[in-house]
Request: fold
Amino acid sequence: MARFLRSPRFLEIALPIAAVLAAFMIGGVLLWLLGANPFEAYWVLLGGAFGSVSALAATLTKMTPLLLVALGICISYRGGVINIGGEGQIIVGALAATAFALWLRDLPGWLLLTLTLLVGALTGAAWGAIAGVLKARLNVNEILSTVMLNAIALQLMNFLLRGPMLDPEQIAAGTNIAQSEALPRTMWLLRLAPPTLLHAGIILALVLAVLVYLLLWRTTIGYRIRTVGLNPSAARYAGMPVPFYVALSLILGGAFAGLAGAVEVAGVQHRMLEGLSGGYGFSGIVAALFGKLHPLGAIPAAFLFGGLLVGANKMQLTVQVPSALITAINGLVVMFVVASEVYVRRARRRTGREAAAASLQSDAAPVTQASTF
Amino acid sequence: MDNLLNTATLIGIAHSGVRLATPYLYAAIGEMFGQRSGVLNLGVEGVMLMGAFAAYYGVFLGADPWLGVLAALLIGALMGLLMAVISVTMQAEQGISGIGLSLFGLGLSSLLLKVLVGSPISIQGFPVWQIPGLSQIPIVGPIFFDHDVLVYIAYLLVPISLFVLYRTTFGLKVRAVGQNPEAADSLGVRVNAVRYATVILGSALAGMAGASLSVGLLNIFQENMTNGLGFIAVALVYFGGWRPIGVLLGALLFSTVSAFQLWMQVLGAPIPPDLAVMLPYILTIVALAVGVKQIRQPAALTKPYERGE
Reply:
């Protein structure tokens, strides 16, 4: 039992959970210091996230973009690049999807929807490609370039939604709320449980999670992406075009975030508006890390963090604890999860040593591979 | 547009440029020390926000602006300690842990603002202090010597950091630890202790960068008021080739572009403001693409140090 508790396999799952609990404990102390009742706040948060059918539907709705972004993050990080650009990629994906659907609004609904989602993904991919090519060709730090591209996308959105893409109805009414015209009804994603906002995008996201798993672990491209991420020198020595796979990791990451933007437009808002990206670009990173950068691990992770976002809104409404608390807690989760990896690494080394010692005692063949990955 | 190029406007742009470089200077020079010792702290953005809030809240409660700056330095140092524990002792992936710290600072500063202050109101921060005599010089005076005290201190940091980095034992240790930690360790330098010192120092300066915004330049705190400035500061360290003078030039370039963009809006230039605001961010990417001399990057940057057994 003690051996199991110290095994890398157990720690891989237990440590992220411990990280979340620790982050919530710190958040609770903060709330207490600020004069709020943390137990009450967290109870409302949990109930708001998972406590009823409508709460679960809302959680699944928020989970959809989170899971899509997290899948992209899994690919990027497995390829050894740190993609912080989800937010910008969501925005450009949603903008392009909206513009496209409004432009070809007379197409049959199913065709328009398919093409719109594709346009969103491609635009996100193009936005990711800027950082990807700059990294591959000129070794530009992708963390910094993607952060800058987020800011640029945000300004682009502000410009488009207040000018060229502004809803004619808003102009006519003189209200000028920064949002686009509504998309044709024929192409809206199917609502799964009216009156809630839950839409068919969740099914798409779950299917894609499986496909990303297959891509990363059952195809040559995935194998190469992971090899480049684990050891670029070895990949180069084996003849892989490392810059290509570096760029590809960021392009695929961008495609998934762009798709998330298009799905939000087609499934939830039915138009482009300010705040559509909703911080998913960052929460998606948290979810991906919590899921140990595994596409299937991202599913429960996106469910959990989607729930936290929903619950945080409820908490803000009923007990007046600002939902910004969840942003702070997410930040702590990120720090704690990456910090706790040190224990997994140590456990791996230890099990490697123990296996080596055991094999020496039993006069078996020496263990050549000290650790597994 | 006609009056864009007259002397008064150019002096105005230069004056704003000198002023707006302040937060970049504090944050980037602090970050430079961390990176020279091998630690990439991407949490600058979050630390700046917390520093900005701490200073603002102090003055909001009626304290002297100097106490506000002290609070910003302290909160910055504390967050630096957290970053050091996670990145140096626990050897976390620095590109990710720093993003966590940024999210934490963003969330916590917004939370504190809403709970403790409500809607932000303007405060009385540091007044403009025209340096007697110098500020009377035509053109030069109004551009360089007509600012609040935090601006002057920011520029003093440049020679100070040059001296510390290249003329003191501490600076030598910082450079050694960032270039070749094994060699430094074998000579008895405590690698992780040096890194703790630089990360905490850099973070304290990032806190001060935040204060320079909230009680110096703008005299208010707003949610996410840094708006990516902390990340630009990190980029400036790359762009400046990990050297104080390079960082200074980079900071001035960026602040002047920002100032130019602001003045274009004031003068009603026919460019949509949303697009003009993109300029500094686009410039950052271009600068990273063409201006970074990779050869100068500290060899051990982002690599945690662990003694071999």
